Amino acid sequence: MAAVAAEDSELDVDALRREAETLRSRLEEERRKSNDVQLRDVASKLEQVPSLQMKVRRVLKGHQGKVLAMDWSTDKRRLVSSSQDGKVIVWDAFANKQERVLSMPTTWIMSCAFAPTGDIIACGGLDNKCTVFPIDKDMENPERKKRTIAMHTSYMSCCRFVKSDYQILTCSGDCTCALWDVDSSQLMQSFHGHISDVLCLDISPVHCRTFLSGSSDKTASLWDIRTGRCVHSFDGHDGDINGVKFFPTGESFVTASDDGTCRLYDLRADREVALYTKDCMIFAATCVDISKSGRLMFAGYNDYTVNVWDVLKCVRVGRIYAHDNKVTCLQRSPDGTAVCSGSWDTTLKLWA
Amino acid sequence: MISKETMHHCEADCQADLQGDCSVCALSSTAAKYRHSKMSNSIAQAHKTVDQLRFEAQIERIRVSKAAADLQAYCEQHARDDPLLVGVPASENPFKEKKSCIVL
Question: Which residue windows are coiled coil (chain A) (predicted)?
Answer without folding.
Answer: 6-40
